[in-house]
Structures are given as C-alpha cells and as structure tokens.
Amino acid sequence: MTETMPESHAVLRTVAMPSDVNGAGDIFGGWVLSQMDIAGGIIAIERAGGRVATVAVEAMKFIRPVKINDILCIYGEVESVGTTSIAVRLDAWVLRGYKGASEKVTEGVFTFVALDEEGKKRPIHNT
User: Fold this and answer.
1) Cα gap 23→21, rounded to integer Å
2) For residue 59, what is the enclosing H or E element?
3) Phi, psi for residue 98 in degrees, rounded to 5
4) What's the CATH fold of domain 12-114?
5) Which of 105, 66, 113, 78 is nearest to 8 (CA)?
6) Which residues pair with 27 in a beta bridge?
7) To 5 degrees, how large is the angle CA 94–CA 97–CA 99?
8) pTM of the full predicted structure?
9) Cα angle at 3 between 80 and 13, to 5 degrees?
10) 31, 14 in Cβ contact below 8 A?
11) Each residue's pLDDT tens digit in the chain (127 positions)?
12) Which helix H or strand E contains 74, and what residues bound it?
C-alpha cells in the first residue's frame, strides 16, 4: 500500500455529505465504492473510446473512514488492457477539514468491458 498522494489530477472530486452516512456516523462504504466506479468508468470510457460496463471489483480495501465534509479525491490509471476489458487501478484520498490534510482511504482495481451499441462485448483497439 502506497501512502504517497498522486501528483496527477484527480479524476473525480466530490464532498461527502450528511445524507451519505452509515449507522456509525461515517460515510457509507457503498457511497465511496460508487464514486470510485464512476471515476474508473471515466478512465475506461476514454481508453475504450466508447461505452463500458463494470464487470468486477477486485482487491477493494477500505483503509480509513471518510467523514462528513471530507473532499473525496479519486485518482486512477489503466492497469491493463485485454481484448475486450480494461483493468483500472483506483486510489481514493480525502482532504480533511479546512486545513486540507490528506489521507488515503480506499484502493481497488475495477474491471470494465467495452460494449457496442447493442450492449454486446466489443474489441478494444490499440491506441
């Protein structure tokens, strides 16, 4: 697990709101997972040059809780490209409070499959 914040721009940034809390008062893990899926989808769409669908989430690791008002920043990169699928490695960091202290909160690998207009698998062209 790397604890060095990426130097690249975040694919997605959003604020954790009170409506997203679980019973313990932390942000619900499913909300974080959905934000990561959105960010991974953006990366996969750009690489595939079109429609994709999530087919797997691997190695998902929740490291620290996300709190209300944290700014969730998701960074990602293509890990591998197959004939019809793309694996995207994602790291989620938060900026806590007004001082902007950053902490890594979640990481995972999301796999997407490229789809044609009818929703069937299609090949991904090399770029």
Assistant:
1) 7
2) strand 52-62
3) -85, -10
4) Thiol Ester Dehydrase; Chain A (3.10.129)
5) 78
6) 21
7) 100
8) 0.91
9) 70
10) no
11) 557 878 778 999 999 999 999 999 999 999 999 999 999 999 999 999 999 999 999 989 999 999 999 999 999 999 999 999 999 999 999 999 777 789 999 999 999 999 999 999 999 988 6
12) strand 71-81
Tokens for 92?
């989620």
For the chain, the C-alpha Rg in angstroms (whole number) is 15
Structure tokens belonging to residue 30? 């499913």
Tokens matching residue 80: 């591998």
Cα-Cα-Cα-Cα dihedral sign, residues 19, 26, 98, 92: negative
Q: Tokens 């709190």 belong to which residue?
A: 67
Residue 20 near residue 80 (C-beta atoms within 8 A) = no
